[in-house]
Structure formats: structure tokens, C-alpha cells
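pls design
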């Protein structure tokens, strides 16, 4: 854990100091609220590297390269996404859910067959993921790794936690599984924003060389946004690459 331990030490020092100074009760309350706010922020903002190291962009990348990533597939809409990527000669990274792989093995095979990179997004993508003990997190990751191995014949290195949530249990699990955690620095909010123009504008305003864009290959809305986004990136002379090419990190292990 990169920052959490430091915050705990600082808060403990302040707590002892306030006790010595016999500070008012509201000072202790403010300390507690501040600590809780920092932990919550670190848990839900993967870019902060609060509990573990996550690669959310490549700020050193000077060439006009950008990585498009898609979460929560494979899905029926994934085929339309693949058609567009093929049309624009773009490569992407798909963070796949195990239960979805079981539903759409043919689409999973197409993702791999067309040269895109796949990553682990847990087996079930449970809404309770943030409350799982480390043993359960490891089980979710390893079970999905086994499914992905059937298509790649290699050990998956890239992992993205559901909802981007991290905590000490996730950090402990990742230390055991040795995955490389991938975040993002451009969040499209395509699962929350209904207006397609607003989604596209949000991405265009935030995208720059070395960016990692978070999208979801699960709706026609995102497909329509993607078509306009690819046209824009092509006009801006961007090379749309998979995560391994953007970060110069291996996607798989033999």
C-alpha cells in the first residue's frame, strides 16, 4: 500500500498530539472525518494509487498514442465495437467478466483473434466486490484467469477492479496474484450520461497523448459515441493502441 500507511501514521501522530494538548472534542471529530474522507477518496479514485499501484496513463508518452479500454464484456454490442475498431485500424483492451465470457465465448474468441488485448475484470463483477475478503478477491481473479487462458493460452497480466474500487483486501490479493492493475485518466461516464454528445465532448476535452480512456462495450449508445470518437482521433492523427503498447508492459505471461 503506497499512501494508506502514511496517512495512518500521520493521523496517529496528530491524535497523540491532540491528546497531549487536550484539544476540544470537535478537533478529534474533524480528524476522524478527514481520515474517513481520504480513505473514501483513495478507495474510489484508482488514479490516486492509495492502496496499490495502478497505471492510469503514460504521462511520458510524447507520441500521439492513446488507449481505448472497454469494461464489462463480452456482450452482444461488442461485435459492433469490434467492427468499428477494425474499420479504423484501431486496437483496444477489453477487461472481461467471467460470467460474460461464459455467455458469449464466440465473441470472446473474436476479440482475441482480431489482435486485441484482454484483461481480467473478475469472474462475477459483484456489486459487493469492495466488501470481499482478500481470499474471495483472489478466487474471483483466478477463476476468471482460468477462463481467459482457454482463449489466450497465456496467463493474463492486466487486471482492472470492478468500479475501480481498491482497498487493503484488493491490494493483498493483487500482491498474491501478481497482476498489473490498470486504471484510467479519461472516464467517459458512458453508463451514467445519456446524452451521446456530452459523452463525446467529455472524452475529447480530456484526451491527450498517453491517455487511457474508459468505455463499456455494453450499449448501442457507446457504439455510436465510439464511431464519432474514432473519427475524431483519426483526424487528430492519434494511433489507437492496446494498453501493452501504450505502457510498454507485457499483457500476458507464457
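designed seq:
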Amino acid at each position: 500500500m503506497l499512501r494508506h500507511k502514511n496517512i495512518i501514521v500521520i493521523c496517529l501522530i496528530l491524535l497523540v498530539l491532540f491528546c497531549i494538548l487536550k484539544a476540544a472534542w470537535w478537533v478529534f471529530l474533524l480528524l476522524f472525518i478527514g481520515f474517513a474522507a481520504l480513505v473514501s477518496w483513495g478507495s474510489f479514485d484508482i488514479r490516486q494509487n492509495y492502496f496499490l499501484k495502478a497505471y492510469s496513463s503514460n504521462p511520458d508518452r510524447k507520441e500521439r498514442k492513446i488507449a481505448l479500454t472497454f469494461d464489462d464484456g463480452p456482450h452482444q454490442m461488442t461485435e459492433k465495437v469490434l467492427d468499428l475498431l477494425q474499420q479504423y485500424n484501431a486496437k483496444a483492451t477489453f477487461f472481461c467478466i467471467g460470467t460474460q465470457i461464459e455467455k458469449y465465448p464466440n465473441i470472446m474468441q473474436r476479440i482475441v483473434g482480431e489482435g486485441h488485448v484482454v484483461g481480467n475484470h473478475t469472474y462475477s463483477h459483484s456489486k459487493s466486490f469492495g466488501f470481499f475478503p482478500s481470499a474471495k478477491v483472489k478466487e474471483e481473479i483466478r477463476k476468471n484467469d482460468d477462463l481467459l487462458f482457454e482463449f489466450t493460452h497465456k496467463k493474463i497480466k492486466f487486471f482492472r477492479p470492478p468500479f475501480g474500487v481498491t482497498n487493503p483486501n484488493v491490494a493483498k490479493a493483487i500482491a498474491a496474484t501478481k497482476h498489473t492493475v490498470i486504471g484510467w485518466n479519461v472516464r467517459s461516464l458512458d453508463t451514467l450520461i445519456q446524452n451521446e454528445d456530452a459523452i463525446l465532448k467529455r472524452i475529447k476535452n480530456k484526451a491527450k497523448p498517453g491517455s487511457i480512456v474508459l468505455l463499456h462495450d455494453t450499449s448501442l449508445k457507446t457504439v455510436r459515441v465510439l464511431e464519432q470518437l474514432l473519427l475524431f482521433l483519426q483526424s487528430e492523427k492519434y494511433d489507437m493502441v492496446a494498453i501493452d503498447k501504450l505502457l510498454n508492459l507485457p499483457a500476458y505471461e507464457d
